[in-house]
Amino acid sequence: MTAQLARKIHLLLATCRPACCNCSTCRRMVQTTAAMFNFLLKMALRSRPPTRAELASAEVLVTTAPLLGSTLYSLPRLQWAQLTFAGVEKLMQFYQPDKPAPPFAVTRMASTAFSRELAEWVLAAVLGHERGFGRLWAAQRRRAWTQSTYTYRPVSELTIGVLGTGQMGREVGLLFKKLGCTVNGLSRTEKTADDAFDNMFTSDHLSEFLRSADYLCSVLPSTPSTRHLLTAARLADLPRRPVLVNAGRGDLITERELVAALRVGSLSGAVLDVFENRAAAGRTANSGTWSRWVTISPHVANLSRPELVCAAFLENLERFTGGRPLLHRVEWDRGY
C-alpha cells in the first residue's frame, strides 16, 4: 500500500496544481514538497524500511503510528508527520508525559469522505440488525419461510445515541437525521444541538444519554477518558435495551462486561467492528453468547484507501506550506 500511496501522491501533485502555477504560493509549495516527496517515494519503492539516519533527516513524513512512535524522540529535523490511519493509540504508547512533548506536528488521517464511509457502515449495522438480516439469512439456509414472525421498527421511529461528536460522529448524526431519526450526541465538552444532533449530553449525564437510545453508536477514539467508559453496571436497567454499534475503538467496553450486559438483557445485541482483544474476539466469535447476540466485522468500517490518504495529506500540505494551522492535529495531553 505504501508504494501505491506514494505513486498516487506523485500523480496528484502533478495534476492538482492550480492554474496559475507561477505564483509565490505554488512555487513555495513545489519547493517544499520536492525533497520530502523524493524521500517518501524512495522509501516506498524499496523492500527495506528506512533507516534511523534516513528518518532523522526528514522534515515531513507520511507514516504509520507505530513507525513514528518507534522514532518519536529521535527526529531532530521533523516539522510535521501525517499519519495514514485515524487511530493514534499505537503512537501514544511511545509518548512519555514526563518528557517535553515532541516539537513537531502530527496529524491524523481524517476527511469528510473518510468519515462518511464510516457513517455508512454504522447505518448498515443499524439497518441490518433492525431488519434482522442475520435471522433472514439463517432462515434461508434452513429453507424456512418466516414472514409470520417478522417484525421491525421504521428507522424514523428510532432514537440514535452517538458517542463522539467530532467529524465522524457528526457524519453519523447527519445521515440518521436525513432518515427522520432522533439523534442524541455524547460529547467530551458541552455543545449545543445543531443540524446533526437533536440533543447533546456530556459524560456527566451519561446515564440519561444511555437511557434515551435505541442504538448506541460509538465512534470514540481510545483515550484515558473513553477507555472502559461502558460497563455492565452503567448499562443495567436501560428501558429500551439498546443495541451497541461500535465503530470507534474496542476498549470502550471489555469483552467480559459486554457479555454480562448481553446475558442479563441490558443490551439486546451488539454489532462490532473493533475489539479490545482482536485475537480473543476471533476465538469467541462462534461461542453461544456471541453467535446469538453479536455481529462482527473485521475492522472494515472505513478503510484508509490511498486516494483518501492522498487527499487528506495534500489538503494539509497546502496549509503547511502556507503557514496555516493543520487539520486534525494530535493533542498530546488529550491522547488524540
UniProtKB/TrEMBL annotation:
One Pfam match: 2-Hacid_dh_C
UniProt domain D-isomer specific 2-hydroxyacid dehydrogenase NAD-binding: residue ranges: 124-301
InterPro entries: D-isomer_DH_NAD-bd, NAD(P)-bd_dom_sf
Signal peptide range in chain numbering: 1-21
GO molecular function, one term: oxidoreductase activity
Keyword Ubl conjugation found: no
This protein's UniProt keywords: NAD, Oxidoreductase, Pyruvate, Signal
UniProt key word Repeat: no
Source superkingdom: Eukaryota
Protein name: Glyoxylate/hydroxypyruvate reductase A
Gene this protein is translated from: ghrA
